[in-house]
């Protein structure tokens, strides 16, 4: 499975689990609040009944207290939305409350008999004490139910914390794996940059050698032109001069052939460099994609940590530990985000240098092609010179005319060699620019390696 897919799954699971745990905790909190309401109202039945009996024994009728106790008992058995009392489902508590309801009716009947003079005060007191014990038992049962729910809530909170730690551990592992992959890509970029730098050094040396050869050839052609003019003036020595010019032309042809071979090699090397630069650009785009994904994961993790901190604050004392974990997650997310931003900045600089390098390499390719064309033209000119020299050697009668023609051809060759020399100088300048860009790319790849 791809690292990006693993990160998406991890973030999705963490988000779903955070939402579900938040909803579950909210339901557990509501259940605890409802348990507290049941306990309080059960206690009201216990205390209110004793207050009601006391008022009745003092001949102070309290119909309001009696009705309130009736309402509370009925609500505890069936539930009452207006009073906020839920309907309990605990069998033991329901059985006790049914008995409480039964004994409450019996106590009210005994009090009515007392009012009518058919019961004694001591009987009412004994009945009240018996009812108090029964209501007290129901109150204790509701307290135990609430304590059980609180224990279950604590257990659930602990389970949620453990699950969060497991999921965060998986996210951390996945991020670390992505970082290793990114480091490998950075190492590849650095290696490519080093190869380009070495290629530029070799190319620069070839161009310098080519420039030196062109200068030497140009000088030879100028000497040939001088000899050709002397041949025109000295017709009697034309054969010897023509032979010397022929040898010089052969030497020039060999030099031009070497120059053509060097320029062909230069063109191939420039094209190889262009391919490597394109490959480097694609790898840099992959690095940027991974960096954006890390940044997105950091932002989402930061948001999740913030939500977790809010929920932990709402949970009060029980959420303090979870709040500390959420804070650490936010710090890690901020650090990951800053690192991703720095990587994106460095990648932008690399892309700029790569684009400049591509333009320079393309210009170098064009110059190399032009130089090849000039070299071919020069080689053809040398072949024409050689043919002319052979003709002069065979036909001394046309020596003067051939010498003049040769002088013109030599001048053209000198101009062509000067053009080749100029092209070589431009190629040298372009190579220097490419080498500078390659050095900058190498430095940027090292900075990127240190940043990762």
Mind telling me the C-alpha Rg? 50 Å
According to CATH, the fold-level topology of the largest domain is Helix Hairpins
**Shape call:** rod-shaped
Question: What is the average of the pLDDT values?
Answer: 78
**Major β-sheet profile:** none
Residue ranges: pLDDT <50 for 5 or more in a row? Answer: none
CATH class of the largest domain: Mainly Alpha
Order of helices and strands: HHHHHHH
Q: How many strands appear in the DSSP assignment?
A: 0
Number of helices: 7
Number of domains: 2
The secondary-structure class comes to: mainly alpha
What is the architecture of the largest domain at the second tier of CATH?
Orthogonal Bundle
Distance between the termini: 23 Å
Helix content: over 70%
So, the CATH homologous superfamily of the largest domain?
A: Methyl-accepting chemotaxis protein
Beta-strand residue percentage = under 5%
């Amino acid at each position: 499975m791809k690292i990006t897919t693993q990160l998406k799954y991890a973030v999705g699971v963490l988000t779903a689990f955070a939402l579900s745990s938040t909803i579950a905790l909210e339901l557990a909190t509501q259940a605890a609040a409802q348990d507290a309401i049941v306990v309080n109202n059960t206690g009201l039945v216990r205390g209110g009944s004793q207050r009601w009996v006391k008022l009745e024994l003092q001949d102070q009728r309290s119909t309001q207290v009696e009705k309130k106790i009736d309402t509370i008992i009925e609500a505890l058995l069936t539930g009452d939305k207006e009073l906020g009392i839920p309907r309990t489902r605990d069998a033991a508590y329901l059985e006790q409350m049914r008995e409480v309801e039964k004994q409450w009716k019996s106590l009210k009947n005994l009090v009515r008999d007392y009012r009518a003079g058919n019961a004694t005060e001591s009987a009412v007191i004994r009945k009240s004490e018996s009812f108090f014990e029964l209501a007290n038992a129901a109150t204790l049962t509701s307290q135990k139910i609430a304590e059980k729910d609180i224990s279950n809530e604590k257990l659930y909170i602990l389970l949620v914390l453990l699950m969060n730690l497991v999921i965060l551990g998986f996210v951390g592992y996945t991020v670390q794996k992505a970082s290793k992959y990114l480091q490998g890509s950075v190492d590849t970029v650095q290696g490519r940059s080093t190869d380009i730098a070495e290629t530029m050094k070799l190319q620069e040396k070839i161009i310098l050698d080519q420039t030196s050869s062109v200068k030497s050839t140009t000088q030879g052609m100028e000497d040939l032109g001088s000899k050709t003019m002397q041949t025109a003036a000295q017709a009697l020595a034309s054969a010897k001069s023509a032979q010397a010019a022929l040898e010089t032309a052969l030497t020039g042809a060999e030099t031009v052939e070497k120059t053509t071979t060097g320029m062909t090699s230069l063109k191939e090397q420039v094209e190889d460099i262009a391919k490597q630069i394109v490959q480097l650009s694609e790898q840099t785009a992959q690095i940027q994609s991974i960096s954006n994904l890390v940044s997105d994961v950091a932002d989402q993790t930061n948001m999740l940590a913030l939500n977790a901190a809010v929920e932990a604050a709402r949970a009060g004392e029980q959420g303090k530990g979870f709040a500390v974990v959420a804070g650490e997650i936010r710090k890690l997310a901020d650090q990951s985000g800053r690192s991703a931003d720095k990587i994106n900045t460095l990648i932008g600089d690399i892309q700029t240098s790569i684009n400049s390098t591509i333009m320079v390499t393309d210009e170098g390719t064009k110059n190399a092609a032009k130089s090849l064309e000039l070299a071919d033209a020069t080689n053809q000119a040398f072949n024409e010179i050689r043919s002319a020299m052979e003709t002069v050697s065979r036909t001394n009668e046309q020596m003067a005319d051939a010498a003049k023609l040769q002088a013109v051809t030599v001048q053209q060759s000198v101009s062509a060699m000067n053009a080749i020399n100029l092209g070589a100088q431009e190629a040298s300048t372009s190579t220097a620019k490419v080498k500078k860009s390659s050095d900058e790319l190498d430095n940027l790849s090292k900075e990127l390696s240190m940043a990762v």
